[in-house]
Automatic annotation (TrEMBL):
This is NADH-quinone oxidoreductase subunit I. The lineage of its organism: Bacteria, Pseudomonadati, Verrucomicrobiota, Opitutia, Opitutales. GO terms for molecular function: 4 iron, 4 sulfur cluster binding; iron ion binding; NADH dehydrogenase (quinone) (non-electrogenic) activity; quinone binding. It is found in: Cell membrane. Its EC number is 7.1.1.-. Keywords: 4Fe-4S, Cell membrane, Iron, Iron-sulfur, Membrane, Metal-binding, NAD, Quinone, Repeat, Translocase, Ubiquinone.
Length: 180
C-alpha cells in the first residue's frame, strides 16, 4: 500500500528565495572585508617553516670544489633507493682535490622516488648533500624528474663551509702530518 506525503504549500518569500539570497549575501559581505587566508600561488610563495626538508641537492665548498667523495653512504641509507652514484676517479687536472681518492662520475636522484626523509643529508660525512627549501618541481616526463649531477650542483650551489676540512687536511699534509 502506497503512502502519500502531502507537501505544504510554500509561502511567497520561500517561493522567491529571498531569505536564502539575503543569507548568502550576508556571508559574502562578511568575507569581503576580512584579510585573505589564501595565497595567489605561484606568484606568492608561502613562508617555509624552519627545519623544512625540501629537494636534496649537492653543494660545493667555498673554493668551488666538489665536496662529494663518492663514499655512497647516502645511496645505501636511502630507504626508497632514489640515489644512484657511479664512483669515478678525480681528474688529474684538479690538484686542489689531489687528497681525495674518488669523486662521483654520475650522481642521480630520482625525485619521483625521493620521500624527503633527509637521511642522505644526515649520513653524509663531507656535508655534500643539503635539503633546500625548494618544494615544487615539475616535469613532463619521468626522465625530467631525475636530477643528474649537473642539475644537483645547479640547485645546491655553494654553501659556506664552517669546518674547512679539506683545507685543514691539505695544510697538515704540507707540514708533514698526514694523519690530521
Amino acid at each position: 500500500m502506497a503512502y502519500v506525503v502531502e507537501r505544504k504549500s510554500l509561502s511567497l518569500s520561500e517561493r522567491l528565495y529571498l531569505p536564502q539570497i539575503v543569507a548568502g549575501m550576508k556571508v559574502t559581505l562578511k568575507h569581503l572585508f576580512k584579510p585573505n587566508v589564501t595565497l595567489e600561488y605561484p606568484d606568492v610563495r608561502p613562508a617555509i617553516p624552519p627545519g623544512y626538508r625540501g629537494v636534496p641537492t649537492l653543494v660545493k665548498d667555498p673554493n668551488g670544489r666538489e665536496k662529494c667523495v663518492s663514499c655512497q653512504l647516502c645511496e645505501f641509507v636511502c630507504p626508497p633507493k632514489a640515489i644512484r652514484i657511479t664512483p669515478g676517479e678525480v681528474p688529474a687536472d684538479q690538484p686542489q682535490r689531489a687528497h681525495v681518492e674518488k669523486g662521483p662520475q654520475a650522481f642521480d636522484i630520482d625525485m619521483l622516488r625521493c620521500i624527503y626523509c633527509g637521511l642522505c643529508q644526515e649520513v653524509c660525512p663531507e656535508e655534500a648533500i643539503f635539503l633546500q627549501n625548494t618544494f615544487s618541481m615539475a616535469g613532463y616526463t619521468r626522465a625530467e624528474m631525475v636530477n643528474d649531477k649537473a642539475k644537483l650542483y645547479e640547485l645546491g650551489g655553494t654553501l659556506p663551509d664552517q669546518h674547512f676540512k679539506w683545507d685543514k687536511k691539505k695544510a697538515a699534509e704540507e707540514h708533514g702530518n698526514a694523519h690530521h
